[in-house]
């Protein structure tokens, strides 16, 4: 299952203990934001919404807390035909890193799930909400946003407006001298950029936390006055190592891709996603978090309902088609689903431990084994998942207490086991 024994042993014990002692009520926080005004210890604010336990309310109420730009739905809402498989899905047992098998519904409680939606071949099989989230609540998707951005860039490449062999500074001369200047668009899309950047969510001085301050995700400590915008922050990042030969996960890379998209297409990502949202017949406006220049956070800032994320993911699973409409070119999906070099991905031992045998292509994690699938994933437990053989699509929105929690290790295995059951 995993190929790093010391990591496996450390995580296995933790996960087994958690499964043993958690029930469906363990992590509920109904007192958050109750009262007029709420008591100080129950108040969720811009300063604490990403921190446990406040994130349990904050992550499906981000619109109330941080600056944002809407992604507009259209006048027509598409139906989600129902084929209820709730009993089968909730009863599923899957192999756990903690040993033995675990139950799917129990796993949803253990991993602080807020919404869980399963579709197959365009039909809604299962939909459930936890922790006070409602079907019409938008939830932050964090780095699932990257996968949406990857599709936008691949669409530009497909229609000939962008060359994936072009270097970034030929499109954005503002980035001359930065880490990105001589990286190709393909290096960028596949997260293979040599850059001096630390993606450590627990260190307030790390580069990724400075990124969060600039992007208005977090209130900056006084010693880090907010840069005005990403347009100023991104050129300041410096090169370290070579491009192209090693997977290096850096959210700022995706923000540069968003800037490339703006420059080449003449559209904001919010405008482009609004066109997709309207074509999909989504139920609710989605939104991007924005920096002080009103610029969309395309690396981690997308928020949407679970049902609308399921519409989007079902469209990708069906090669860009949704209810008879071709929304994204089929060739775009086929290119991403073909994956990249798993050896490049494997050079990052922690990512390879989490998804052994996968590759990273166009901001998606891709498996090209006997059960081809791909997923977008974000910190604190956000996922969109596609299994091509069975036509299964899964959306999971969560509010886990840390960015990269051990208890989330089982989640991709649960997805793949569920898809195998639905294939039969």
Features of the shown structure:
single chain; alpha+beta; Beta-lactamase; 7-stranded antiparallel beta sheet; 4-stranded antiparallel beta sheet; 16 helices; 33% helix
Beta-strand percentage? Answer: 15-25%
CATH fold category name of the domain at 5-137 and 307-423 = Beta-lactamase
The CATH superfamily title of the domain at 5-137 and 307-423: DD-peptidase/beta-lactamase superfamily
In CATH, the architecture of the domain at 5-137 and 307-423 is: 3-Layer(aba) Sandwich
Largest sheet: 7 strands, antiparallel
Helices, by number, come to 16
User: What separation lies between the terminal Cα atoms?
Assistant: 22 Å
Please provide a written account of the structure.
The chain is of the alpha+beta class and 424 residues long. It has a domain at 5-137 and 307-423: 3-Layer(aba) Sandwich (Beta-lactamase), CATH 3.40.710. The protein is built from 16 helices and 15 strands. The protein has helices at 5-21, 55-58, 86-91, 104-110, 144-158, 168-171, 185-189, 207-214, 230-233, 251-265, 269-280, 306-317, 330-337, 342-346, 349-354, 411-423, and strands at residues 68-71, 93-95, 101-103, 113-120, 123-129, 139-140, 286-289, 302-304, 321-322, 325-326, 359-361, 364-367, 373-378, 382-387, 392-398. The radius of gyration is 20 Å and the shape is globular. The two termini are 22 Å apart.
């Amino acid at each position: 299952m995993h190929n790093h024994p010391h990591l496996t042993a450390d995580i296995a014990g933790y996960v087994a203990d958690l499964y043993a002692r958690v029930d469906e009520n363990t992590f509920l926080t109904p007192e958050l934001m109750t009262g007029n005004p709420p008591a100080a210890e129950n108040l969720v604010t811009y300063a604490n919404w990403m921190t446990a336990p406040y994130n349990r309310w904050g992550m499906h109420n981000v619109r109330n807390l941080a600056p944002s730009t809407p992604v507009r739905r259209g006048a027509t809402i598409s139906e989600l035909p129902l084929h209820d498989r709730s009993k089968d899905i909730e009863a599923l047992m899957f192999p756990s890193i903690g040993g033995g098998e675990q139950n799917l519904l129990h796993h949803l409680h253990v991993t602080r799930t807020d919404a869980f939606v399963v579709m197959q071949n365009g039909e809604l099989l299962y939909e459930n909400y936890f922790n006070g989230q409602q079907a019409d609540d938008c939830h932050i998707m964090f780095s699932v946003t990257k996968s949406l951005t990857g599709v936008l860039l691949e669409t530009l490449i497909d229609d000939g407006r962008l060359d994936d062999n072009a270097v970034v500074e030929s499109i954005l001369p503002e980035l001359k001298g930065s880490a990105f200047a001589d990286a190709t668009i393909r290096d960028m899309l596949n997260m293979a950029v040599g850059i001096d950047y630390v993606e450590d969510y627990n260190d307030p001085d790390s580069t990724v936390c400075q990124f969060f301050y600039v992007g208005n995700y977090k209130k900056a400590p006084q010693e880090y006055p907010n840069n005005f915008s990403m347009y100023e922050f991104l050129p300041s990042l410096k090169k370290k190592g070579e491009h192209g030969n090693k997977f290096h996960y850096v959210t700022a890379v995706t923000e540069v891709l968003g800037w490339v998209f703006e420059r080449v297409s003449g559209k904001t990502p919010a405008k482009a996603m609004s066109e997709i949202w309207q074509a999909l017949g989504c139920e609710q406006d989605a939104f991007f978090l924005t920096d002080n220049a009103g610029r969309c956070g395309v690396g981690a800032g997308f928020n949407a309902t679970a049902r609308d994320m399921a519409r989007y993911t079902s469209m990708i699973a069906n090669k860009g088609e949704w209810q008879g409409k071709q929304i994204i070119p089929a060739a775009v999906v086929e290119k991403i689903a073909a994956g990249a070099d798993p050896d490049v991905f494997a050079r990052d031992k922690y990512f390879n431990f989490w998804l052994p045998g996968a590759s990273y292509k166009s901001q998606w994690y891709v498996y090209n084994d006997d059960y081809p699938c791909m997923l977008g994933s974000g910190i604190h437990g956000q996922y969109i998942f596609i299994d091509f053989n069975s036509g299964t699509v899964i959306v999971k929105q969560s509010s886990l207490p840390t960015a990269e929690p051990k208890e989330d290790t089982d989640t991709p295995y649960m997805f793949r086991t569920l898809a195998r059951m639905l294939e039969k």
